[in-house]
Design goal:
The chain has helices spanning 40-44, 48-53, 78-88, 102-114, 118-129, 138-148, 156-164, 171-177, 179-196, 209-224, 239-250, and strands at 4-6, 15-21, 27-31, 34-38, 71-74. It has 253 residues and is of the alpha/beta class. It comes from Leucocoprinus leucothites. This is BTB domain-containing protein.
Length: 253
């Protein structure tokens, strides 16, 4: 659903953001009950939604967005918007905490998707994908990737982890995965167990952890990616590619 914007006055008590109410700003934006003041072109140049609503951000052509009549981003939390500005408009003296947790990046992903900001969507996805272990639960990551229609090839590590997981796939997990993906994963888990040996029957082969991971990767590639993986794993060989995505995505201001 596309976000709703208005500049009608609101009766709710509003407060200025302690950091992102900038004296040099040319427009006041309201998210939640918080007012942000900054150069609107910073956001407008990246957001396809704002570009469709406000074709031009020249001061002479803009409506007057001030404290009494802010550009009100309905159904947008002040926390999400603050995190977006941390990336779009970083301040060297800001006391705000760095974005580093799964919830931070999910917040960023949510608002970037809502306002159609592809560079920030890519950045948030790359950062979520690169989270150190344990990172996101594999099933949760798959659900997030489905919700925001992110690159499915980045799910390769999640499929590999689920393929190797000893615990059975629960009913709730199967509902989250969907019948097609659940069926494919069940086939992958069965194939993996045949190749590494059966733990319960005492016939597990003497394979190293690295060898087992390689078997799981091959099984996942064959069933989910037709033997041609294009996604980024967290192996050392993929770090340069991931760094390139992050570097290109972060250069948005």
């Amino acid at each position: 659903m596309s976000p709703t914007l208005t500049n009608s006055p609101s009766k709710a008590v509003k407060q200025r953001h302690p950091i992102y109410y900038l004296s040099e700003g040319n427009s006041v934006v309201q998210a939640g009950n918080t007012l942000f003041r900054f150069d609107l072109s910073v956001l407008h140049s990246k957001s396809l939604v704002l570009q469709s609503i406000l074709p031009n951000t020249q001061p002479s052509l803009l409506p007057k967005f001030d404290d009494a009549h802010p550009l009100h981003l309905l159904e947008t939390s002040s926390t999400d918007f603050e995190r977006l500005l941390q990336v779009l408009l970083p301040l060297s003296s800001s006391p705000l905490p760095n974005l580093s947790t799964p919830e931070h990046y999910l917040s960023l992903l949510n608002i970037a998707s809502k306002y159609h900001i592809p560079t920030i969507t890519s950045l948030a996805a790359a950062r979520l994908h690169a989270l150190p272990s344990p990172g996101l639960d594999p099933v949760r990551k798959i659900a997030i990737w489905d919700q925001y229609k992110l690159d499915p090839h980045l799910l390769r590590p999640s499929y590999v982890a689920l393929c190797q997981r000893d615990q059975p796939i629960s009913l709730q997990m199967s509902l989250t995965l969907g019948i097609k993906r659940f069926t494919m994963l069940a086939a992958a888990r069965e194939s993996y167990r045949e190749k590494v040996g059966c733990k319960s029957c005492g016939k597990r082969k003497g394979l190293s952890k690295k060898e087992k991971v390689k078997i799981a990767e091959d099984v996942v590639d064959e069933l989910f990616f037709k033997g041609k993986p294009r996604g980024l794993s967290k192996s050392s060989g993929d770090r340069p590619a991931l760094a390139k995505i992050q570097a290109s995505s972060v250069a948005v201001a």
